[in-house]
Amino acid sequence: MGISMGPNQYGKAEVRIVTVDRSTPRHAIKDLNVSTSLRGDLDEVHLSGDNAKVLPTDTQKNTVYAFAKQQPIGEIEDFALRLGRHFVSSAEGINGARILIDEYAWQRIPVEGTGHDHSFSRASDEKRTTAVTIDGDQAHVVSGLKDLVVLKSTGSEFWGYPKDEYTTLPETNDRILATAVTARWRYLHTDVDWAKSFESVRATMLEAFATTHSLALQQSLYEMGKAALEAHPELAEVRLSLPNKHHFLVDLSPFGLENDNEVFFAADRPYGLIEGVVRRDDVEDAPMAWYSTAEF
Where does this protein hold 5-hydroxyisourate (predicted)? Predict the structure, then answer.
């Protein structure tokens, strides 16, 4: 029985970088978490420790900082494409790169009715994301968001499910539906207005979540992905991960009080986790390498 080296990659994870655009008195900031991974002819470093083709991860980190200085970061997709193409074109033995970026949103602090020129507050836990894969001369972009917390105070039901001797959950035709959305959508090409597309996909999915009378979180997932694909021809598929942030009705009867869906206990764990892919029938599946190893 022989033994050989399988697929592999290496890089620098979670390079935190904040830039300040001082070109005008009204500053702008970009706050990113960047991870780089390189692939290629790297068998020898694993088999014999030969580092001849191993661009140091520290060099990859420094490249992120230098690129942020040499040219404005712009949209995270463009920044990731520049980094990935640079590594593939300049590093010996490297024929593939994967760049992952999370962007943290900041908003201007309002002062006398307008946003301050150089003072900001963190908008929320929500992050904009992109995963760019460079494979030779081809580029593939998967963008999205994570930790977008949403809630419907009505318009959600859950009933008709199988019941056995271990079932205690009561059926309901009126419940709180809440989740923290992680969504990633694969683009068919790179000729895209990234900022416009992101804002539009996000708004479309939120509208679908709000307007769908949901009989199951799975149904909401499908309607969100379907709406995004119908409104955005540049997308091939949408992958959604929706933890069910349970809100349980508090029993107030011991206190002689009725609870007409007004008082809830918000449980953080355990939680249901609903995941799925909504895709176009006429588009090829994406190689799993285009996605994070943490994704389904």
Answer: 57, 158, 175, 218, 244
Architecture of domain 145-295: Roll (3.10)
CA–CA dist 1, 177 (Å, integer): 53
Taking every pair of C-alpha atoms in the chain, what is the biggest distance, in angstroms? 76
Residue 175 counted as an annotated binding residue:
yes
Residue-wise pLDDT tens digits, 229-251: 999 999 999 999 999 999 999 99
pTM of the model as a whole: 0.93
Catalytic one of 12, 30, 127, 152: 12
Domain ranges of the chain: 1-136, 145-295
Q: Kindly report the CATH class assigned to 1-136.
A: alpha beta
User: Residue 172 catalytic?
Assistant: no
Structure tokens at 129: 């994301």
Q: Any catalytic annotation for residue 213?
A: no
Instruction: Kindly tell me the sign of the dihedral angle through the C-alpha atoms of 213, 219, 222, 225.
Output: positive
